[in-house]
Amino acid sequence: MRKICGVLRAHSTNPRYFTDDTGKPIYLTGSHTWSNIQEYLGPDPDKKFDYPSYLDWLEGYGFNFMRGWVWEEASYDNVATEKIYIGPLPYVRSGPGIAADGEAKFDLDTFNQDYFDRLRERVVQAGERGIYVSVMLFNRWSTNERPDAGKLAWNGHPFNKDNNINNIDGDPEGLGGRMIHTLALPEVLKYQEHYVKKVIDTVGDLENVLYEIGNEHWEDSGPWQCYMVRFIKDYEAGRLLQHPVGITSGGGAWRSLANQKVLDSPADWISLRPEEGMAYDTDPVAADGIKVNITDTDHIWGLGGNVDWVWKSMTRGLNPILMDPYEPIYGMSDYTVESWKAVNCRDHPTWEPIRRNLAYAKTYAQRMELEAAVPRTDLATSGYCLAQYGQEYLVYIPEGREIAVNLGDERGEFAVEWLNPDNGETVCGDKIQTANEKTFINPFSNAAVLYIARAV
After folding, report:
1. pLDDT in tens, the chain (456 residues)
2. Residue 33, domain CATH
3. Which among 152, 264, 436, 440 could disulfide-bond with 144, CB atoms 3.0 to 4.6 Å apart, if both were Cys?
4. Is-contact 325 41, C-beta < 8 A?
5. What is the DSSP string of 284-329?
6. How far apart, in Å, are the Cα atoms of 106 and each of 160, 201, 298?
7. Would you say residue 1 lies in a domain?
8. How many domains does the chain have?
9. Are residues 390 and 297 part of one domain?
10. Helix, coil or strand: residue 258
11. Is residue 2 part of a domain?
12. Do 146 and 242 fall into the same domain?
């Protein structure tokens, strides 16, 4: 376990990665699941997520990052067709009056301290394991998505006019709550600002914190998200610690914020979706270092991913993470995306190879002089190469037996190591004395990872 040593900020010489007080690059990777901050387990309000066991499990893989999920609604969602329990929420339910889900209405002027105590406790516990937490502030999936999902999420949202005692109407145009994640509703924005300040007051002294404005927000949310990034930065400017703030895109089919708007934002870190010319699923775009890119299976497949994606992302200078059905989404059997239904369980064979290879990739990142390693599609014939030219190379070979690698102009001795992604087996090749281009033969019958380092 690596100790948390200061708040994250972009590395000065290789801003594809974060660093801390040690000055060393930090390669972020990990697994996240939907119930890791609030309970989001189904219709039984007494069912609880075993958070300590979850942290044990993350630590077992050596993961150092998770998204801390937030759900804005108290009941119903866009997957299950029945009422489910989500909580705690940031606001008390004191009434008077009954909300649409049959429970007491929310008082938006009074925070539920249990929510904030729980948030802090869980972030602290993760930090004790060397795990950074991206604290999600809002969630697009807490507004309505599609009409076949039964009681939709907006029915349980505190900003629904039927659910609060404060006369706040977050849906004046009948769009299922979509407007709350824009700048169109000043009264809603005031409550959001008050809530964000409370979150920062709760966890802003912790070094293992990042902020994420929200999950997969609508295409018209860009100005609101940029406003929130600046709002957080302004509020933290007078505090001891200033944390990285991120904006994420979403699956291209769901009308979420486009990649270019995310790239142009004031965010410190980003997560992008597949678009034309940006095939983050099959051929990831090499990171340019303008922002740290934490590439997430969530915004690429939803529930999905593969081993190829792990290594292609890593060798293109990205920080890959997995949205993991460690605790499955309740009600997925009723959902419309057939491919998600099949894999919505912790032990489905899709997941373990991805988890293991995320861990393998982190091990190589820790071995490398990452401060000088950049994606170089020109140095290996596969096109997947993270390298310090002439010194150190990590190459992914998705197929084929032969791979040619340009080892630089200066002749020297290089150590060679192969990794089999299928089983974690490593094979040390003979040391070589060479310069310029060298052809290597994959010792495995499947994909391989090749690590080459100049002997000291």
Report:
1. 689 999 999 999 999 999 999 999 999 999 999 999 999 988 888 899 999 999 999 999 999 999 999 999 999 888 877 889 999 999 999 999 999 999 999 999 999 999 999 999 999 999 999 999 999 999 999 997 654 455 589 999 999 999 999 999 999 999 889 999 999 999 999 999 999 999 999 999 999 999 999 999 989 999 999 999 999 999 999 999 999 999 999 765 457 889 999 999 999 999 999 998 999 999 999 999 999 999 999 999 999 999 999 999 999 999 999 999 999 988 887 676 788 888 999 999 999 999 999 999 999 999 999 999 999 999 999 999 999 999 999 999 999 989 999 999 989 999 999 999 999 999 999 999 988 999 999 999 999 999 999 997
2. 3.20.20.80
3. 152
4. no
5. PPPP-SSSEE--BHHHHTSS---HHHHHHHHHTT---EEE-TTSPP
6. 10, 22, 31
7. no
8. 2
9. no
10. coil
11. no
12. yes
Shared domain check, 245 and 120: yes
Q: What's the pTM value of the predicted model, to 2 decimals? A: 0.96
Say which CATH number the domain at 410 has: 2.60.40
- The two most distant CA atoms of the chain are separated, in Å, by 80
**CA 375 centroid distance within chain:** 21
- Last residue in a domain, options 367, 402, 432: 367
Do 397 and 338 lie in one domain? The reply is: no
Half-sphere exposure of 408 (CA within 13 A, CB side): 16
